[in-house]
Amino acid sequence: MWKKLLKYRNIAKDFSKVDIRNGERSSFWYDDWSTMGRLIDVVGERGQIDMGISKHKTLAEAWDGRSSRTHRAAILNNIEQELYW
Fold it and tell me: Is pTM, for the whole model, over 0.85?
């Protein structure tokens, strides 16, 4: 039964969203908080390096004390825009 459930996990991801609240329990990279979905799926491991946000950061930690940057890649600028919107 478990293997059958795992087979449909990609479909189930589309129906789950994270309730952000203060962002202290929401992963910046691995939770589905943005309109783009899980950011790790959008930009991959390289995006973490380019944005300068560790893969273990929460949304609150990524937001706190950080100023908006301009990147060469448009997708990274879109992420910056969502973070500060």
Answer: no
